[in-house]
Amino acid sequence: MKQPDIDIIFEDEDLAVISKPPSLLSIPDRYNKNLPSVSDILREKYGEIFVVHRLDKETSGLMVFAKNADAHKLLNDQFQTRSVKKTYWALVKGVSPMEGVIDVNITVHPIKSQMMASLKGGKTATTEYQTISHFKSFSLVEAFPHSGRTHQIRVHLSHIGHEIVCDSIYGTDEPLFLSSFKRKYRQSIEKEERPLLSRLALHSKELSFKHPNTKETLTLGSDLPKDFRAALNQLEKWGK
User: Are 27 and 39 in contact (CB under 8 A)?
Assistant: First the structure.
């Protein structure tokens, strides 16, 4: 099986920062080891590699990996102490507020174990956000999670009534079509309409942290994947 291409954004003897494509696992699946993952692909390239943090399978964008145990500990400490600045872009449903702070605890859902929930008894979680663009019935939001809870951005945006497009867990998995927002859309009788976006519309766009060895602040960015970018282009053209 041909392995997916992974863009290396930055690398040296201590770490590698990559841009994960959508629909690729961060780490191996516990039940099906044959599914490709970023960590397996990087181990083929570098040999030993250490996972610092993860992204959901459908989420695209920046991930940090350490190349040695010392770098792993120092990078992991930064993520644990919330000193890493993380910036995500999310396409959400509805017209979101221009900016805000979501300070709502998150815990494992009491019934659905694969799902998180915003409940009082959970762990503290804070997400700051601002709206980049408004469309007729969608918004492009920039989110800054100040904690690293599982599914944090997805849970928090859903909590305020603006779930992320194609979020099958906290919203609906309905794809984004041109007919979703273009007036007088005419579908070809011969062809079925293809979705503009059919996966979670969430992208890890920027990370800022200290290099574990040089202590220099690294600020790295990742371009939006083709599907996300194409959806935004159509929204700019027809969705205002």
Answer: yes
